[in-house]
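Box S1 | Example of a co-folding query
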Amino acid sequence: MTDNPFPKEFWWGVATSAFQIEGAVDEDGRSPSIWDTFTHTPGKIRDGSDADVATDHYHRFREDVGLMRELGVNAYRFSISWSRILPDGTGRRNPDGVAFYRRLCEELLASNITPVATLYHWDLPQVLQDRGGWLSPDSRHWFAEYAVAAKETLGDLIGVWATLNEPWCAAFLGHSAGEHAPGLTDPGAGFVAAHNLMLAHHDAIAAMREHRSDGDQLGVVLNLIPAWPASDDPADAAAAAKVDMVQNKLFLEAVFNGRYPDEVVEWHRRFGVADQIDLEALAAARQPIDFLGVNYYNVNRVRHVPGAPAPGPWPGADEAVIVVPEGPLTDMGWAVDPEGLTWTLKRVATEYPPLPLYVCENGAAYPDADPVDGTIEDPDRIRYLESHIEALAEAIRQGVDVRGYFVWSLLDNFEWAKGYTMRFGIVHVDFNTQKRTIKASGRWYRDHIARVTGDG
Ligand code: FCB
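Box S1 (continued) | Returned holo structure for beta-D-fucopyranose
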């Protein structure tokens, strides 16, 4: 890096989520989540696996915090399992579930690692799904109650809170594309779920603010995937704009301005769900946030194809086709486009009021070999991380207020519908023995942190 734009207090972190790493699904009073149901439904997970054990982090969290110390990170983004804290979804609090996160946070704080918590990383308690899940108008109240329960029981240890992780996935992969729990394939349901998630986000911010401590930061994490036209053809630009509307604009407008773009309102009518989406309620619920988390992996390039149906997770985007990218690709089949990260951060900074940003997830899956003599060489992942950190540096040089960066992921883990087939970790996990091995990329990240913070 030619000049180092990262301030000393910048957060260099790693990220995980509860369902993907914890395991211990029926311990200490946890109730099932929609992802337990989904993983145990035949045909939903590529390798037929489940996350009953995952990386056994619930029992190995001290070792995992030890790995973070070795890497030299100063922040850790994780998510809290709603069904550990409130096994009935609402009401009764489960002290044993709370105790796990207290132990984790105490271990982090003793290691000078700042805990950054996400309340909802897609694992809705199944009992609430049985009452309608995110399609129920009550969901905003359930979520606000959970947010208060988490804040009251953990707020002395955690000062940075994100409400939702990637609501686009929860809404549209979960309710329109059927790829994620709860597995619905209904275009309109995606919009209803997105709406209730946005109400839930605002209500949770409002409720947590009432229990605010000095210096708390409250925000939300969006996966802003750039939708770029595949060519200069204006028809491709129009198709890309529709994908962008569902992927990005819907959530940015709802979060910042308490409204939806006109096209989205039109789609509410077209899919027959306008009566379930109260626009005034969204405007009234709107709360300012203290930070926005941005997850970035790749760019979608979009082509106009006459007559093509809208792709499943972008209902409304008729005649838009996501182009299959050309190599080199990550194991997810995603192209490596670091300039999309600079572009995305600048976009948020340009189109919305000034606000601290965090890159809450960035990383790559590659098919790593097994460890040899205790090491794993993963040069592709190093190149991916290095080029994206440089793209982030460029955004900062251009004036964007980015305060932290979190690698996805600390550990190889359960990658949702792809099961254990995708390895995103900078630490390798042997899923048979649970042995952890820091990959070359982990050592590279450690050295990078030491270099830019002047500790190297
Ligand atoms: C994001 C998710 C995260 C992980 C990465 C690869 O969409 O937030 O849980 O699955 O993708």
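The two ends are 15 Å apart (CA to CA). The first helix runs from residue 18 to 21.
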